[in-house]
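User: I've been trying to design a sequence by hand for this structure and keep getting stuck. Would you show me what you'd pick, starting by listing the structure so we're on the same page?

Assistant: Good idea, let's start from the same input. This is the structure you sent:
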């Protein structure tokens, strides 16, 4: 949780989700931060297992990549203080994601008709048990993980016109439990 508590670390993770790999200098230019600060925070993310150095490159220009393909955050903790902290982190992550979605909605007219027609949002209500909801989450996660995995790390594998696309899936009860 400490690894994700800093806004620059979240920004670095989001940058890596979009680009696949970056070095500290590229990250600094993209995020408007110093190279030293980006380098420090990338090392901190590595310490906690979120990022790793790309093999075969050493020195100042060494690129970093995600060591995990996605992030699933749960605020279910045994310690009440840890649960509060995880819930705050989860809200921060969702706020950042919804902010990017609002940016899309407000700026979509700048995209081609093809992108405007392809973009979607979907909402459904289904009556599920906790076990069924877990199963849905596992299926959706498996689908997301299987989507063109080589394209994230290998820019040459990306077809012309491909852009990074954020895919979100959430499932949660919308009515209180009846005991």
């Amino acid at each position: 949780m400490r690894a994700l508590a800093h806004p620059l670390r979240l920004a670095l993770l989001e940058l890596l989700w979009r680009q696949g790999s970056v070095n500290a200098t590229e990250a600094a230019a993209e995020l408007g931060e110093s190279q030293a600060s980006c380098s420090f925070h990338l090392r901190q993310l590595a310490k906690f297992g979120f990022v790793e150095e790309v093999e075969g490159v050493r020195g100042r220009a060494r690129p970093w990549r995600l060591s995990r393909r996605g992030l699933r955050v749960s605020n279910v903790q045994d310690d009440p203080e840890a649960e509060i902290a995880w819930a705050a982190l989860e809200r921060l992550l969702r706020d950042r994601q919804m902010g990017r979605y609002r940016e899309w909605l407000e700026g979509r007219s700048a995209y081609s008709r093809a992108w405007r027609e392809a973009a979607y949002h979907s909402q459904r209500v289904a009556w599920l048990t906790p076990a069924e909801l877990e199963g849905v989450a596992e299926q959706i996660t498996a689908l997301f993980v299987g989507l063109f995995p080589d394209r994230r790390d290998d820019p040459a594998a990306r077809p012309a016109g491909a852009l990074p696309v954020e895919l979100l899936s959430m499932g949660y009860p919308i009515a209180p439990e009846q005991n």
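That's my pick for every position. To get oriented when you compare it with your attempt: The chain has three domains: 2-66, 72-119, 122-174. The beta strands are 21-22, 51-53, 64-66.
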